[in-house]
Every structure is written in C-alpha cells, then in structure tokens.
Amino acid sequence: MPTPHIDSKKNDFSDIVLMPGDPVRAKYIAEKYLDDCIQINKTRLMLAYTGFFKNKKISVMSHGIGIPSASLYVRELILEYNVKKIIRIGTCGTLRDDISLRDVVICMGASTDSKFNRIKFNNHDFSAIADFDMICQAVEVIKKMKIKVCVGNFFTTDSFYNDDKKMLDILKKYNILAIDMETSGIYGVAAELKAKALSICTVSDHILNGESLSSKDRELSFNNMIKIALESALLIK
Ligand code: HPA
User: Fold this and answer.
1) Ligand 1 centre from 205 Cα, in Å?
2) According to its UniProt record, which residues of this chain constitute the active site (predicted)?
3) Is residue 93 situated within a structural domain?
4) Ligand 1 pocket test: which of 105, 112, 204 has the largest number of ligand atoms within 8 Å of its C-beta?
5) Of 109, 115, 27, residue with least CA distance to 66
C-alpha cells in the first residue's frame, strides 16, 4: 500500500521508527546496527530499512530537512504503516555557554517560527511536547552510559541561515537549549494522530562562537546518539 512518498508494503515497518534527517545516515544505522536488515523504501532516495536490534524489530527512515519534509513522512508512517513511536535522531545548533559541541540534548518541548502547528490548531499556540515516558526512558539509558545529557526547550526554525541578532538574543534570554528544523512539526503531527515522539539531537553547531563539527566528528558523536535511541527503543512498551 504505497503512499505518495513511501513505496513499502503494509507490514514492512516496525511500530518504532528511528528517523535521522539524512538518508545516508539511515543506511549507515541499518547496516551497522540492525541484524537481518532489508531496505523497504527508496522513493526520492528517502531510504528506509527494517531489521532487528537485540531481537526487537526496529525500522529506520530518513525524514529530510525541515518541517514540510519531516511532517509528511511522519504522517504517512503513522496513518498508513501503523507506526506508533518516532525517535528523531538529528543534529542541532546551540547558543548556550553550558552546552558544547557533541553534547546530547533531548527536546522536552519545541518553540518555533513555523506556522505549521498554528495552521492546524486554529491559529492558536500549540504546545509541542515529547512523550513523557520516552523522555524518561532515554534519560535512563543516557545515565547508564554515563553521558552528559540536557533536557529542555528547542527552537525549531524554518531558516537554517539566520543572522537576525535580535532573535538570537531572545532565544538566549529564554534559555533555549537547541535549534533544529523539524521537532515542533514532528511533535505536532504525533499529537494530532495519537502517536508518541521524541527528539534526541547531537550539537553540531555553536552559533555564537561559530564552531561546528567536522564530518568525521559528526559521525563519531552520532554513534552515541544511535546507541541511546536503540537502547531506549528496547524500553518502550
Ligand atoms: N540551526 C538549525 N538547525 C540546525 C543547526 C542550526 O544551527 N545545526 C544543525 N541543525
């Protein structure tokens, strides 16, 4: 039962899907971490795979960049493929002095400059929040791994390149933990369709001092986040 953007069969997906932005990362996760994995989508090269992690069926599919892309894949997965839990594993920027490159951050709620949730929420402010149990499970895993973790408010933006100094000052004033381009939309769709979602990100850019991870560093720090997401997926009921 293909959708406009996913050409997979009804039972190809697990009810838990890990979602990086980048299709190359989806392939990397599937090949490195999943046993008996098969590719189940390649439409628009938005690659998807299903396999087993410690005997649990898990799927991984990329969601592309930005809310319009991520939200349509999440919607089709929930409505047409019976997916119940989404774990976004992405990269993000930060403005905070107490957060460094490579840190793992978890999005409890996501503010945004996007109108995506407003359009669906009668032009009011929807509070885009993570599933509470999924936050607790991820934090439990991270603590066992003895990795630093910070849980807080993200800002999901439609514009990666933004030199609006006033807006950056406001984000700092409100103690925004991280900036990404998808989470508020993913949380909005999950709420609307009664699914659960969590966004875990690795800090790849420090916006105030201009530091950013090299591609090698991105890959190494990404591995921690993949392990966190996979081990958390084992705890999800
Ligand atoms: N802004 C928005 N999204 C991002 C960033 C950023 O600085 N880094 C990685 N994803």
Assistant:
1) 7
2) 205
3) yes
4) 204
5) 115
Q: What is the pLDDT of residues 112-169, one digit of tens each?
A: 999 999 999 999 999 999 999 999 999 999 999 999 999 999 999 999 998 899 999 9
DSSP tag of 209? T
Domain-embedded: residue 31: yes
Position in ligand 1 atom list of the atom nearest CA 162? 1
Domain carrying residue 135: 16-235
Supply the pTM of this predicted model.
0.97
Q: Is the CB of 168 under 6 A from ligand 1?
A: no
Annotated binding site for phosphate: 21, 25, 44, 88-91
Task: Say which residues have a Cβ less than 8 Å from residue 91's Cβ, sequence separation at least 6.
Answer: 21, 180, 201, 202, 203, 204, 205, 213, 218, 222
In the block, residue with structure tokens 């409100």: 174
- Structural domains counted in the chain: 1
Q: Is residue 66 part of a domain?
A: yes
CATH number at residue 131: 3.40.50.1580
